[in-house]
Write a structure and sequence with these properties.
The protein has 356 residues and is of the alpha/beta class. The chain has a single domain, classed as Glycosidases (TIM Barrel). Helix content is 36%, strand content 18%. The protein has eleven helices and 16 strands. It is globular.
Length: 356
């Protein structure tokens, strides 16, 4: 073996002896210092709006005044931000319509991809803007499917029970004491999609929601949790026998026109309206499409559903203030042009309340 070859081998051996220590130094993860993010600094705007709570079947403020909310849902903040429209003006335009309550849907895929820490920054902005503008917020974990079996309608809704619990843990820790963040809609639309997403009993769903509520209240016992019924958050009939075992909560229904054949009011009474005599209810999604040439007369679904809900003391939220998701309230972000449905809900939010 030549002297040159021996020298090369010695250099290679020396290099191989040094490499592991260098790589180990670079890859050290000081996991013993890991911790959840600290709660944000105390927000001076957190108490600008009066604290809400449940009294019997009503949402009430600190003075005991009962409130029926009229509101709308925006699109997912991650979508709005990615498309360049996440700003205070958006919320100012929403306020001009007469909105009292803004529903913010958080899709599991957006929560993961943006990362919880960065997503919370979007929600912080919304909380500050809405505090200044006098609008309350619903945070909605926007998934559709069967959380028990972890089967969902589309990939954007894919989540797990663990992620759902961690989401609410993060939200509760972050917004403790913030009155603007008044409502937590625990799961958007539970459904088995006619058996295609497995099966789940109401007793299972009841326990899942009760577990989430207990987790939230370990951090914050002032929020009002909202629980959805089955059939894409439409059917509340199980409440006749097995209501959720928790105080200071409400229920949601999504009574879209295609859920039942006309006449609607008798079916609404049977499916969810009966519960309004005992519990506070928000129809957290209502909306409709219009065929070309179709008009909105006094017998139209829009008039029927808003009148029905308000006469029975139920709140409502229109879906959705966006030009792409449907049924859409916006034609375009340019000038915040409203569709016919958008104009209808603007008029409905500014009209006198329906009373029996």
């Amino acid at each position: 073996m030549s002297l040159r070859l021996i020298a090369i081998l010695l250099l290679l051996i020396a290099g191989s002896q040094k490499a592991p220590s260098q790589d180990t130094t670079r890859k050290i993860h000081a996991w013993w210092n890991d911790a959840f993010p600290r709660p944000p600094a105390k927000n001076p705007k957190a108490k600008l709006l009066p604290l809400l709570h449940v009294y019997k079947n009503k949402f009430v403020n600190a003075k005991g005044d009962s409130i029926i909310f009229r509101g709308l849902s925006i699109a997912d903040p991650d979508k709005i931000q990615n498309q360049g429209n996440w700003n205070r003006q958006l919320f100012e335009e929403v306020k001009k319509l007469g909105t009292m309550l803004v529903r913010i849907p958080v899709h599991p895929i957006a929560w993961r991809e943006r990362t919880p820490a960065k997503y919370l920054q979007l929600l912080d902005s919304a909380a500050n803007w809405c505090s200044n503008l006098g609008m309350y917020i619903i945070i909605d974990w926007h998934s559709i499917g069967n959380l028990k079996m972890e089967l969902f309608q589309d990939p954007m809704y894919n989540t797990t029970q663990k992620e759902t619990l961690e989401f609410w843990q993060a939200i509760a820790r972050h917004f403790v004491g913030n009155n603007t963040m008044a409502f937590y809609e625990l799961f958007n639309e539970p459904t088995t999609y006619r058996g295609q997403l497995g099966n789940i009993a109401w007793s299972d769903w009841k326990k899942i929601n009760e577990d989430i509520i207990r987790l939230i209240r370990a951090f914050d016992n002032e929020k009002i949790e909202l629980v959805a019924g089955f059939d894409w958050a439409y059917d509340l009939t199980p409440l006749r026998e097995e209501p959720i075992n928790a105080e200071n909560i409400g229920y949601i229904s999504h009574p879209y026109p295609w859920k039942r054949q006309e006449p609607w009011p008798p079916k609404w009474d049977e499916d969810f309206g009966f519960a309004a005599g005992q519990y506070p209810i928000i129809a957290s999604e209502i909306g409709f499409g219009l065929r070309p040439g179709q008009s909105i007369d006094s017998n139209h679904y829009g008039y029927q559903i808003t009148r029905y809900l308000e006469e029975r003391g139920m709140s409502w939220v229109a879906w959705v203030y966006d030009p792409e998701w449907g049924p859409n309230m916006l034609k375009s972000w340019q000038g915040y042009q409203l569709t016919e449905m958008g104009k209808f809900f603007k008029d409905a939010m500014q009209a006198p309340f329906h009373k029996r």
